[in-house]
Amino acid sequence: MARGRPSRQTIYAQLDEAIEDLRSRMGGLPSPAEAEAIWSELWHQEAHHSTALEGNTLILNEVRKLLDEGRAVGSKELKEYMEVVGYGAAAKWVYGQAMEPGDWTTGDLLSIQEVRTVHHEAMTPVWNVAPHPHATPAETPGNWRQHDIQPFPEGMTPPPFPEVDHRMTDWVNEVNKIREVDETPFPERLARIHNDFERIHPYLDGNGRTGRLLLNLLLVRLGYPPAIVFKNERERYLKAMRKADRGEYGPLGELIARAVTNNLYRFVVPAVAGPARLVPLASLVDPKNGVTATSLRAAAERGRLRAQKSENGTWLSSKNWLAEYERNKHRRVKG
């Protein structure tokens, strides 16, 4: 029988299990100082995909060159390079601030000052070369909008600008309650918080980028890897946001849960797990050497790769077992 798409509850359970394993067996999420390579790649990926969701056309290699070397490779408009520079600076600030908060923070999960700082970091470089055409001097990066926003084509209408200040105060207060016991699945609570920010639309421009950065600030502070919405998921993300506008948070919660779990398996677990530690097969994937999730699963199911199934049905193996499988496979091929 063909395997169907896992249910939303299964996806949530897989995330819970993976995070518990990260905390109990691997010492939790490593800091940027402890695992610079992990955070560097997450930084590149997030800056690329989050700006691409807004129409930026730089490819991933161009983003790496720009962020690592300050080289503007290619022949794109200056505005596009500055979008990536700003987002990259903001993401780096978010990761560092999430793991090691500055002295001026309130001690809460999030503060209004941090919300303003994230927008200021993300938008200042592009604002310096291409400011919003309708912006007043009071609407520079980090400052709430002083304009009303026209209704979106899908029907969502942000509140009038005089309401933004108290709406954002209420939003931050809700964010700071997320650790409280609640029957709603955690990814859907995150989805509601993320969507509420976008519905308030506190800034004249840059709300999507700022909202995704703030979502990741919360995730990392709570011990989760950041969520990266890949550019090829743009339509699914927007559709899920439209459903969330109507109070249906499941699709967006599922997308967030998948994104966090994927980053955990792809970047974090391979770097912090020892060679004998059992990890999901997704953490052992190595496309450069032809090691795919499909081939590993097939090998595990046929008993050629030593592996175990977790309680939720996820196949687990280790770097040592994979190396043993690779050695035996090559011997069989030569024979």
UniProtKB/TrEMBL annotation:
Signal peptide: none annotated. It comes from Nocardioides pocheonensis. ATP binds at residues 205-212. Residues 110-258 form the Fido domain. PROSITE patterns: FIDO. InterPro entries: Fido, Fido-like_dom_sf, Fido_containing. The record marks 54 as: Important for autoinhibition of adenylyltransferase activity. The active site is at 201. Keywords: ATP-binding, Nucleotide-binding. This is Fic family protein. It holds the Pfam family Fic. GO terms for molecular function: ATP binding.
